[in-house]
TrEMBL record:
Matches recorded under NCBIfam families: PRK07777.1 (NF005855)
Gene3D superfamilies assigned to the protein according to its UniProt record, in alphabetical order: Aspartate Aminotransferase, domain 1, Type I PLP-dependent aspartate aminotransferase-like (Major domain)
Lineage of the species this protein comes from: Bacteria, Bacillati, Actinomycetota, Actinomycetes, Micromonosporales
Protein known as: Succinyldiaminopimelate aminotransferase apoenzyme
UniProt-listed Enzyme Commission number(s): 2.6.1.17
Family: Belongs to the class-I pyridoxal-phosphate-dependent aminotransferase family.
One annotated GO molecular function: pyridoxal phosphate binding
Length: 385
């Protein structure tokens, strides 16, 4: 693990605290999730649910995860044997890779990739094969199908697919998913899907969210991951889950028992309550976040950034070159001093930093007044060019 330093999220959040800047770096909301969920957690905490829960997770949560996936995506998973609760999606990703990969196996992922992917792949002694997402003429990020095809080979063990995608806000289209599915089947590869932003696809996205596991031939080779942090604004709870066919899920459980064993006993029943909330919660959450996206996208555009409008997630990426920036890392390190705002450079999420050199990421999962203040500060940049 020698090549891995402090994560960019920790570095930039510390910078925000130190400088008193508005933190649009690390993606965490600044208000609480549904009151029903918080009340259920308090009740569980006071009601004695404070010891080790069962290894795969409390039954109420596994049942709720199964019901939620059936309700929104038509997917059927048996709560007994096909679902495991994890310490956030982060542990779910790590345990899935450790469960499926032997040293030397290749893991295909799309860059920019979420930072824990590279570390988890390294922990398994596996090799990452990134395929680059590049901004296309229509302002959307896309990959070259030939590049994806060429990245598959005899050592490809799995494809790690994150859609809706952090940091780009890209939602993979049905055609793109169909190609991934076709290549997985052609090469006998598994898929591990990180769908933590499954409820954050905006109404103007070109396509709705489609779990890869719903495509023909994919359920039996896919481990599908999600977590409560984003959907219910409780990123500090670290309650996630993996769903898939029993043999794969049992391999994940075997790994998980030696990573954390179990986690979050009193929070698990509370997340079960949240997963069962009415459709109005989920659409309200999305609409609210979409309004925040619109506020930040308009503000960044006005401030002079080259904005790549996202179709989903908490994040928007922007090109710093119209503001005279050359390197996103330098730009982000000086931004708090220049105007009191923190963002993260996306080059750290690429194997090929040149591909993301000019891009930085802002999070819009913040209260509107906080976004407005950030935008006011960012507008001063153009004046100082
Ligand atoms: N995957 C992606 C794409 C993320 O953005 C995040 C951050 N929420 C995670 C995984 C980690 O999720 P968790 O906090 O549930 O571990
Ligand atoms: N998922 C969040 C982000 O992408 C934060 C993750 C972290 O701090 N490890 O900003």
């Amino acid at each position: 693990m020698r090549p891995f330093g402090t994560t960019v999220f920790a570095e930039m959040s510390a910078l925000a605290v130190r400088t008193g800047a508005v933190n649009l770096g690390q993606g965490f909301p600044d208000s609480d999730g549904p009151p029903e969920m918080l009340a259920a957690a308090a009740e569980a905490l006071r009601g004695g649910q404070n010891q080790y829960p069962p290894g795969p997770g409390v039954p109420a949560l596994r049942t709720a995860v199964a019901a939620h996936q059936h309700r929104f995506w038509g997917l059927e998973y048996d709560p007994d044997g096909e679902i495991v609760v994890t310490a956030g999606a982060t542990e779910a990703v790590a345990a899935s890779i450790l469960a499926l990969c032997e040293p030397g196996d290749e893991v295909l992922c799309f860059e920019p990739y979420y930072d824990s992917y590279a570390a988890s792949i390294a922990l398994a002694g596996a090799v990452r094969r990134p395929v680059t997402l590049r901004p296309a003429a229509d302002g959307r990020y896309a990959f070259d199908p030939a590049e994806l095809r060429a990245a598959f080979g005899p050592r490809t063990r799995l494809v790690l697919l994150n859609s809706p995608h952090n940091p780009t806000g890209k939602v993979f289209t049905p055609q793109e998913l169909a190609l991934v599915a076709e290549l997985c089947q052609e090469h006998g590869a598994y898929a591990v899907t990180d769908e933590v932003y499954e409820h954050l696809v905006f109404t103007d996205a070109a396509a709705p969210h489609v779990p890869l596991a719903t495509l023909p031939g994919m359920r039996e080779r896919t481990l599908r991951i999600s977590s409560a942090g984003k959907t219910f604004s409780c990123t500090g709870w670290k309650v996630g889950w993996v769903s898939g066919p029993a043999p794969l899920v049992s391999a994940v459980l075997r790994v998980k028992q030696f990573l954390t064993f179990v986690n979050a006993a009193p929070l698990q029943p509370a997340v079960a309550v949240a997963l069962g909330l009415g459709d109005d919660y989920f659409t309200g959450f999305r609409d609210d976040m979409q309004a925040r996206r619109d506020l930040l996208v308009a503000g960044l555009t006005d401030a002079g950034f080259g904005v790549l409008a996202p179709e989903g997630t908490y994040f928007v990426t922007a090109d710093v070159t119209p503001l005279g920036g050359r390197d996103g890392m330098e730009f982000c390190r000086s931004l708090p001093e220049r105007c009191g705002v923190v963002a993260v450079p996306t080059q750290v999420f690429y194997d090929d930093p040149a591909a993301g050199r000019r891009l930085i990421r802002f999070a819009f999962c913040k209260r509107p007044e906080v976004l407005t203040e950030a935008v006011t500060r960012l507008r001063t940049l153009a004046g100082g060019r």
